[in-house]
């Protein structure tokens, strides 16, 4: 019955579709892309859990199509956003080839999340880096150099992960995940050095602080539709990979997540380029997910994956709205925009929904999933080194990140849509873009209210919401120690307080922020170090080569001098004199002596040896 | 019946050696026809003999003949198998080639042809004997005749070279005899086959056996001219007449190396090496040093024949290394390289002789621009030189390849590296020669431009002995002595044979497989 569904992994199908999209006319190609994504959505939704396509890959046991609650959730949301993003690409005049690259990127992401072993995962992981780099490069111009830096970052990250995977293979002698048949007893990456390498390698993908600079560097540069794809797949596959590598969580990773939430939100606040601001928010939001994975356990992991799901929706929506603004005005900078709410009501409305979702305002999907993670940081995680009152360390870090998120989206909305008036008239999003945006906006609201504790939840059929998709049932006390209830007075108050704090914070910091120039990030150091380091390496190599060249040529000249007149050379070394030049050719006597010496030596070696 | 070939192969040249002198009493130039007829007969017998021992014929692949009907181990035995057949064939072919070459260049005396036939007989005897003392006798015949032939040049330095060779060669042969004496004391036999079984019974750790091998090894190392026992060889090769240089360089050391292979693997066997690992290491070390130092010394020389002489030191180092490796592959390469080296060196010495007779060229500097004036000879020397480097397709490639392969198989990376280095060094000194021939302008070549064109049009091959006497052709070419066509033809044929033998690995394998099967059982 399910055999046709498991004959090939979805990634392969999508890859074939990507090739077709490149070859077909633009309209047909995009229609095919949308249809293929939609079919994939139904496909991964209906396929029963299990490990399919157990085979040999590069001579090792491999599972090419592994379906469990985690990979299914990833597959559903990837396919869902795929449908919308291809539609948006079509409406935003993306070239067929770009959409083809984007679909190949989607396809490799599917390959990664449905991999049942580390080898297949890293293979698709590296392919994702390639296809996404191509997607960035396709826009040319400034995107090329940014794409180059992106490729270097991901090359290094992928290599570290590969090292970790190989060492894990060394320890477990299989690449398979623990959950598939024939897998090892202990899941995840082997402890110790491999774990550290894997954390850093995956950390590049999810944007650990210090390893995140490629995010704001790359994502603002390519085509607006390419950004919608980019913001979804790489970092979220990273979160998924982090869960596979650390299924039990890890203290340091949890705190790194908290740090990312605050750091990303803070740096986002300093940005005036719309897509750059959004890119820092990817880091901040992924911070929440990483915190969830780091905490470990059913509640936190459910929160993390719920947040992956919701985040993809509202972050895709945010990039779409920002893209529409760029598409219509040709302007990236918030300072040069304003008053667009009147001109582009649909875009402004979609933005508002997305902003409230990402900030975690009650009634929107971000509120649900962020709440689970914060709840887990309180109930399923230690108080940490710096608790404030009854707020655990990680908890207040995440809450602080929430305030920063409110502040920066108030800033975004204020400057783009509500502040001042726009000169001249600007058309709103076109039909395709509007359909894409409104569909996602609707989903953001839907997943915000389709939760068990929502007052109107009783009129919805059970399990239609997000909770039905999550790997663990967080509403059952049989599964989690502390049952999560979304809409409690405490939670709603918390959400509103954060919003108010964000509003006040923005009011206070608006002036200094508006005077702030470009705030340097760590990549200012990286780029300089790499540039000057690279230059000194090149100069060093050149000089070394010159020195070797001089030495070799000198040696040859000396050898030639010795060769042409060995007698004079020997004389220079102090043998013989001008009257009695040294005799180099051995005469009869010396030859016989040498002969006898050799025979004595030979006999001595034989007899004594 | 075919075992009668063995004594015939040795006896015919030895007996025929009397006739040049005897007939010389009556006819002035009796030597060459006698020597030529004998050599052709020997060559025919050699082909017949090779056919008899080759797997292609149905006969036994190992021929044995008891001299005078006294059976071994008391009588002297002649033995012919695939390995000796290759040597016999090489000796007889090179002998015919050298004789053709010698017709016009001499040394034009009947005594020379007597010596030539004696030397041929001695070499064949070394290749075919199955008796250790008999081998010494032939070794001495070869040695003494070589000394005489080298001294047959008018040059005083040749006399000194011959004398040096005489002293060292005699000492070397004596060392061999001492070794055989020890072995005789230990086993009471001189027959190779017999001694092999006696030695195995006695044990290879016996000091007497070990000392015997040491003396024999060093004695042959001198005869083969391995560094540092090579000192006789450059003088001898350089100052001997061109014909003699070609003959001796191609065959004498080669046959000595064959004898060492025969004694090391047929008498002492691989088990001896296995029981005495230190001597293996020492052999490999000496061989490696010989390869590198010989090549370096060749690089330092200015005289062509000296370069080729030192090159032989390096090339035989390679063969000694192959002997020390105890690898079937390497030994296979060594035998191919023995043949290849003989042919290549014969080509090079004869080519140098042609250019020396025609243009008086002795040093690398003299060779500047000669390729224009003597394109055929220069081209053939280039072919043989590149074959010596090991550039495919040539017999030099085969030999080097199998020796290097054997070294790698045996895990002797050091030897493999040395062979690689020696290839580079060989390329350097052959490169010097090629550079001079093809890419250097002759030092004095101002007013001979028009006459040079005449030379080009007719090239050196056509300046035949009588045609060259036509003064109108040779007048413009300053100090050009006409050269007989057949000398150039011999050089061409030999050079092409070094290329053609590239395809002969299968034939070598067919002849050698039964022999090596016995060596490495």
TrEMBL record, chain A:
The keyword Electron transport does not apply. It comes from the Archaea. Residues 115-377 form the NADH:quinone oxidoreductase/Mrp antiporter transmembrane domain. Keywords: Cell membrane, Membrane, Oxidoreductase, Transmembrane, Transmembrane helix. It is found in: Cell membrane. The chain crosses the membrane at residues 6-24, 31-53, 73-90, 97-114, 120-139, 151-169, 189-211, 223-243, 249-270, 286-306, 312-330, 351-376, 396-417, 438-469, 489-508, 592-608. It is a multi-pass membrane protein. This is Na(+)/H(+) antiporter subunit D.
UniProtKB/TrEMBL annotation, chain B:
The chain crosses the membrane at residues 6-25, 32-53, 83-102, 111-129, 135-153, 165-188, 208-232, 244-265, 277-300, 307-325, 331-355, 376-395, 401-430, 488-509. Signal peptide: none annotated. It is a multi-pass membrane protein. The keyword Transmembrane applies. Its main location: membrane. The keyword Hydrolase does not apply. GO terms for cellular component: plasma membrane. GO terms for molecular function: NADH dehydrogenase (ubiquinone) activity. It comes from the Archaea. GO terms for biological process: ATP synthesis coupled electron transport. InterPro entries: CPA3_Na-H_Antiporter_D (IPR050586), NADH_UbQ_OxRdtase (IPR003918), ND/Mrp_TM (IPR001750). Keywords: Cell membrane, Membrane, Transmembrane, Transmembrane helix. It is found in: Cell membrane. Residues 130-426 form the NADH:quinone oxidoreductase/Mrp antiporter transmembrane domain. This is Monovalent cation/H+ antiporter subunit D family protein. It comes from Halonotius aquaticus.
């Amino acid at each position: 019955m399910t055999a046709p569904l498991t004959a090939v992994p979805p990634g392969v199908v999508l890859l074939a579709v990507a090739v077709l999209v490149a070859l077909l006319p633009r309209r047909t190609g995009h229609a095919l892309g949308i249809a293929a994504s939609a079919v994939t959505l139904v496909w991964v939704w209906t396929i029963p859990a299990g490990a399919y396509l157990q085979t040999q890959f590069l001579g090792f046991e491999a599972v090419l199509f592994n379906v469990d609650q985690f990979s299914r959730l990833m597959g559903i949301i990837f396919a869902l956003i795929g449908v919308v993003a291809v539609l948006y690409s079509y409406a935003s005049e993306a070239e067929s080839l770009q959409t083809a690259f984007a679909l190949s990127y989607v396809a490799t992401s599917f390959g990664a999340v449905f991999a049942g072993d580390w080898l297949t995962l890293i293979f698709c992981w590296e392919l994702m880096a390639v296809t996404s780099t191509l997607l960035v490069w396709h826009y040319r111009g400034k995107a090329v150099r940014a794409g180059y830096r992106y490729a270097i970052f991901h090359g290094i990250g992928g290599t570290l992960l590969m090292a970790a995977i190989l060492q894990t293979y060394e320890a477990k002698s299989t690449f398979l995940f623990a959950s598939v048949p024939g897998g090892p007893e202990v899941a995840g990456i082997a402890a110790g050095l491999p774990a550290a390498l894997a954390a850093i390698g995956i950390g590049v993908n999810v944007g650990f602080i210090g390893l995140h600079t490629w995010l704001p560097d790359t994502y603002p540069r390519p085509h607006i539709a390419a950004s919608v794809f980019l913001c979804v797949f790489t970092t979220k596959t990273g979160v998924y990979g982090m869960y596979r590598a650390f299924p039990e969580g890890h203290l340091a990773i949890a705190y790194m997540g908290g740090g990312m939430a605050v750091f990303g939100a803070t740096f986002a606040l300093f940005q005036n380029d719309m897509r750059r601001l959004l890119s820092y928010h990817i880091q901040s939001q992924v911070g929440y997910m990483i915190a969830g994975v780091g905490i470990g356990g059913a509640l936190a992991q459910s929160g993390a994956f719920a947040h992956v799901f919701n985040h993809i929706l509202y972050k895709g929506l945010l990039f779409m709205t920002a893209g529409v603004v760029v598409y219509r005005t040709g302007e990236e900078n918030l300072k040069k925009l304003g008053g667009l709410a009147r001109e582009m009501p649909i875009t402004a409305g979609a933005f508002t929904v997305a902003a409230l979702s990402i900030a975690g305002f009650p009634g929107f999907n971000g509120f649900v999933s962020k709440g689970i993670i914060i709840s887990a940081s309180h109930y399923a995680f230690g108080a940490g080194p710096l608790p404030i009152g009854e707020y655990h360390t990680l908890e207040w870090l995440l809450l602080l990140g929430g305030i920063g998120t409110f502040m920066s989206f108030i800033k975004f909305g204020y400057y783009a849509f509500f502040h001042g008036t726009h000169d001249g008239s600007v058309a709103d999003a076109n039909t395709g873009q509007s359909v894409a945006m409104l569909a996602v906006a609707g989903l953001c609201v839907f997943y915000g209210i389709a939760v068990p504790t929502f007052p109107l939840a009783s009129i919805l059929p059970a399990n239609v919401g997000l909770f039905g998709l999550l790997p663990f049932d967080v509403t059952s006390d049989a599964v989690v120690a502390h049952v999560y209830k979304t809409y409690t007075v405490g939670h709603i108050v918390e959400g509103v307080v954060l919003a108010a704090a964000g509003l006040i914070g923005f009011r206070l910091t608006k002036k200094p922020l508006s005077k702030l120039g470009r705030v340097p990030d760590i990549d200012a150091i990286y780029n300089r170090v790499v540039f000057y380091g690279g230059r000194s390496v090149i100069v060093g190599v050149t000089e070394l080569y010159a020195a070797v060249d001089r030495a070799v040529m000198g040696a040859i000249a000396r050898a030639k001098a010795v060769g042409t007149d060995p007698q004079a050379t020997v004389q220079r070394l102090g043998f013989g004199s001008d009257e009695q030049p040294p005799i180099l050719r051995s005469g009869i006597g010396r030859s016989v002596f040498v002969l006898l010496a050799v025979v004595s030596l030979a006999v001595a070696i034989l007899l004594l040896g | 019946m075919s075992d009668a070939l063995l004594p015939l192969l040795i006896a015919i040249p030895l007996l025929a050696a009397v006739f040049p002198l005897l007939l010389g009493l009556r006819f002035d130039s009796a030597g060459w026809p006698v020597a030529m007829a004998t050599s052709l007969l020997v060559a025919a017998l050699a082909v017949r003999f090779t056919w008899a021992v080759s797997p292609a014929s149905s006969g036994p692949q190992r021929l044995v003949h008891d001299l005078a009907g006294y059976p071994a181990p008391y009588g002297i035995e002649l033995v012919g198998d695939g390995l000796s057949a290759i040597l016999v064939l090489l000796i007889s072919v090179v002998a015919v080639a050298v004789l053709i070459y010698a017709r016009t260049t001499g040394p034009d005396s009947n005594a020379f042809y007597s010596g030539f036939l004696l030397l041929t007989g001695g070499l064949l005897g070394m290749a075919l004997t199955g008796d250790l003392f008999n081998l010494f006798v032939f070794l001495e015949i070869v040695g003494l005749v070589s000394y005489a032939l080298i001294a047959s040049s008018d040059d005083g330095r040749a006399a000194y070279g011959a004398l040096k060779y005489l002293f060292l060669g005699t000492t070397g042969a004596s060392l061999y005899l001492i070794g055989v004496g020890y072995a005789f004391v230990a086993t009471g036999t001189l027959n190779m086959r017999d001694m092999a079984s006696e030695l195995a019974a006695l044990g290879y750790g016996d000091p007497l056996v070990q000392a015997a091998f040491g003396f024999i090894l060093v004695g042959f190392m001198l005869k083969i001219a391995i560094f540092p026992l090579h000192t006789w060889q450059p003088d001898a090769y350089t100052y001997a007449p061109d014909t003699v240089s070609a003959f001796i360089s191609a065959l004498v050391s080669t046959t000595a190396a064959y004898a060492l292979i025969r004694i090391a693997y047929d008498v002492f066997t691989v088990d001896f090496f296995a029981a005495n690992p230190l001597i293996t290491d020492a052999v490999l070390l000496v061989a490696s040093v010989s390869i590198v130092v010989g090549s370096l010394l060749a690089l330092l020389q200015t005289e062509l024949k000296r370069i080729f002489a030192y090159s032989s030191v390096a090339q035989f180092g390679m063969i000694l290394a192959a002997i020390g490796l105890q690898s079937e592959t390497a030994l296979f390469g060594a035998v191919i390289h023995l043949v290849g080296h003989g042919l290549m060196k014969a080509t090079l010495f004869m080519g140098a002789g042609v250019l020396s007779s025609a243009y008086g060229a002795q040093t690398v500097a003299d060779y500047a621009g000669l390729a224009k004036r003597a394109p055929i000879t220069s081209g053939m020397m280039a072919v043989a030189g590149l074959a010596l480097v090991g550039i495919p397709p040539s017999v030099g490639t085969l030999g080097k390849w199998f020796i290097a392969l054997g070294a790698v198989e045996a895990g002797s990376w050091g030897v493999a590296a040395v062979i690689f280095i020696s290839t580079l060094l060989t390329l350097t000194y052959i490169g010097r020669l090629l550079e001079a021939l093809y890419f250097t302008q002759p030092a004095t070549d101002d007013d001979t431009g028009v006459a040079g064109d005449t030379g080009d049009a007719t090239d050196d091959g056509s300046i035949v002995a009588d045609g060259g006497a036509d003064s109108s052709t040779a007048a413009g070419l300053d100090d050009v002595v006409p050269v007989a066509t057949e000398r150039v033809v011999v050089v061409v044929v030999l050079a092409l044979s070094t290329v053609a033998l590239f395809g002969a690995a299968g034939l070598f394998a067919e002849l050698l497989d039964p022999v090596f099967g016995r060596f490495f059982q």
